[in-house]
Amino acid sequence: VQTSCGYGVPYLPSPSLEDVKAIETGEKKYLELRDRESMGHWASKRIEKGELREYQTKNNAFSLDGLPGFRIAIRDSGKSVWWARMTAWVRRTGSQKAAFALGMLMGCLMLLLAQTLALL
Question: Does residue 95 sit in helix, strand or coil?
Answer without folding.
Answer: helix
